[in-house]
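A favour between colleagues. Tell me how you read the following sequence-structure pair.

===
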Amino acid sequence: MYMENVIEIRSEVDPIFRLAAAIEEWPRILPHYRSVDILRETAKGRLANMSAWRGNIPVRWQALQTVDPGAKVVGFHHTHGFTKGMDVYWRFLPLSVSDAATTRVTISHELAPRSPAVVVETVNRLVGHLFIDYIATKTLLKVKEL
């Protein structure tokens, strides 16, 4: 499964990048996030338990977050939960739009199939559209508002 969510935000890259990297703040600023608990920091990144709402359905997962300030990429590798093995990347591209600073933010999700094709198609439809796309879209819209 591969999917992307994209939005353009009237802002310089750095404020959006800092917001995306500060996952410990997400439950305070993103109403659909229930909690983000940093379990430990390692040389590779920060391991966190994360939970959000999909409508009124609670979802949770564990991910290793990596932050590359030079490349302006925030990454997540899901280590536990239904989406175990999924890689998520936030990428930030500065755009020139009539003298106003604008940034294109892309969140990509990639999950390699672990099951027979019928199950993979079900996962793509249910998990991809109903959960991942829903939460990523809400996240980007709120980030744009902020």
Notes: The chain has a mean pLDDT of 89. The first strand starts at residue 2 and ends at 9. The helical segments are 13-21, 26-29, 117-145. The beta strands are 2-9, 33-41, 46-54, 57-68, 73-80, 87-97, 100-110.
